[in-house]
Structures
1.
Amino acid sequence: MVICSRCNHREILGALFCSECGMQLDPSAGSQTESFNIPAEIDDNQVGSEDAVLAHDSRLTLYLSAHDATIQLDTPKEYSIGRVSEGQKVLPDVDLAPFDGFNNGVSRLHASILIDDKSIEVKDLGSSNGSILNEQKLIPHVPYVLSDGDVLIFGKLVARVLLKS
């Protein structure tokens, strides 16, 4: 049983949000992503380069070089980034489970990316293993502006940010 810190409503173990008031539940109350130490330095060979994805058409492309895969986001909106696990009620818009998200320390709701007319921002959602932008650990719930060529790490899952000019 998980108890909401706002309204004291009881939820089943593993619930992410209170069904009564909508408050995000404390992840320490349920099943957690395994925590580990994140290396301070980024190896350029892990990241790949934008040359690997010459024809990206979307406003934002995340290139996952370890999987030779891309995730393309174009529509102006806020996208949740995480991994889907069994029994999860609130699903992320972008599922990193197929990219070994669990073993890479990606939380079920790890981060968000906001695309609007003026900028593209990333925000860590208080994930267990954090997010890193260009070797700087993100402060949870604080937005950071993304630029073309940035290196973004969710847990240990490395992505190169490619922005359409």
2.
Amino acid sequence: MADRMQRALPIMPKEPGSRNLALFTEEEVEARRPILLAGVDQYNSGYFFEAHETWEELWLRSPWPFRQFLQGLIQVAAAFVHLMRHEYPGTIRLLDEGLAKLDGASMTMGVDAKRFLAEVRGAREELGGLGPQCFEEWDQAQIPRIHLTDEAR
């Protein structure tokens, strides 16, 4: 049976996708700082989904440890997309995952990661304390903003 299934399904050559491309060098990452900053502007303007998409373009080819930091930003942005959609489980799960990736970030390209981490952690605690029945009462003006260090200005 397995033999017959293998013959019935032709093996299609895969086209190289974005996940198969070589990782950027540190210089190439630095040259793409405007992408990071565009995502920061989108995020700070409340365009969380757009920020997520912008950063994902950079994340796909970034090396560690910057890749982990970007994934943390992406997950936090996605958490606030879930918040806007009134989806408590996704909000909390993605905040937790984003916090885990942002904690101890070493390559942040000028993002004040410590401040952002502390503010996201505070938002997570408040939302978690409200629970699924009352989380929509949380003041969305409290969504943490991303600040830059002097390095990025």
3.
Amino acid sequence: MKKINNLYSVGGWFFTLLCLFTQLNLQAGGIKDIAPTAADAPVMLETGREGFGRFADYGGPEEGRLYISFGRADEVLYLGLSPEYTNDGVPFVNNTVASRYQFRIRRDNPTGTDPIVHGPFTVTNLNANVETYAEAEYGIYDTTQLIGGEQMYVFRPGEAGDYYIEFDDVSADGDRRVNIPFWDLTVVRDEQVVPGRVWSRGWAFRTPQVTGTTPPDCVWDREFNGSLYSYTEDGFVSLIDFQDSGFQGLSFNIAFNSTGPGTSGDLGEDRKSVPGVNQTGTARQHRIFLSLPDIELFPDGICGEVTASESFICGSEENAPYCLQVEVTRSGQVEILLDFNGNGILDDNSQDVNLVYDFGPDSLAACIPWNGLRGDSTPVDFSDTVDVIITYSQGVQHWSAYDVEFMKNGFCVETVRPTCDQTLSSNFLYYDDRDIPEDPGTGAPRDNREGCACDEGCRTWDNFSLNPGGTCDTFDDS
């Protein structure tokens, strides 16, 4: 069973919302950011795999690039890279299939020219500078290896800006993917580590099996306990924490955007989880960091305000005879709940109506249309009364993941910055699985558009079963 699990979280504010700030341990950008202990490792970079976005691949799609941002010309990138591992998470050991992959760094240039500025270099079992989890940390691995007089694992850009690293398999096994189990990318300025500079819009990881022999988990038995940070287009940062969540995915994609995996343009529909396809390619919008984004290069957004008319007016469209005039001071999303039963929440299979509208930076006022129908498709009457609840959100972040077999316990999402005046917490998670045909197996509801907190075991499933006979004799690609 392959499915898209789409999750959305408000990282800005409603009318009055608390953007919580938490003191966090600052790391660089590598395996130790997303594998908290050696027992959690390896979490392999899975680069170049077809069907998983060709993450960090030679000539791969822009949305799947692995970026490093430099704020000054004299900053330096130090790289720690281990030999390639097999898909099962073990080293290549004999000379005929020994690790052999290339990497290069390119300058991100919006004019279309992106010359290679470092490399390409070939990483083998003999010249890799990291072998273990303990070694994958800046200051521990050696960076003095010279290739043609150039330091292989040190990059000095000489110019501020964004650069990206690409990997390519050059072995004879015919598989384009490169699995890198232990890795580190650290930016240093004035001999001090600068965290929050490594990011991608579409990561691909692989958590190889611990034993792979015990059903029902089988080869999906290694948990992912990492944390990720999302930086939205309007400057809001959220933390998604998978510690003890029961996240088991083997190979998986992660991407964040402001609308969801759908592409219809109807935000209410586009939020829904999508069964059967890898739709994360359309969700690769927000930058995803392994550590808190550096505020110098990725500053806080500005909290906005919303005003709305007191009543609907006649609309200009035949299929939308009514509309409500709404204006915001900053880009964001506005939801209008027409609460016909007056209980303050959106009820499924009821007369309630939910309208969603996205305001861009160049369009901060609109008359939001409504077709005049209740949720049960009956027309509204002029004598009807209805409670109208307006929610204005900034920093909206949909967390889209592909091919995650288990999420047994649920996870937490937390607003990090900016902090805003007028406070209410926004650390709820919302999801809409009404289009997923299978029940989650944990008793979790399919429809959670009202939101849930992480201490409620929010957003769980354990219904994956590849082998009804109870054996682990299968290939994971099935």
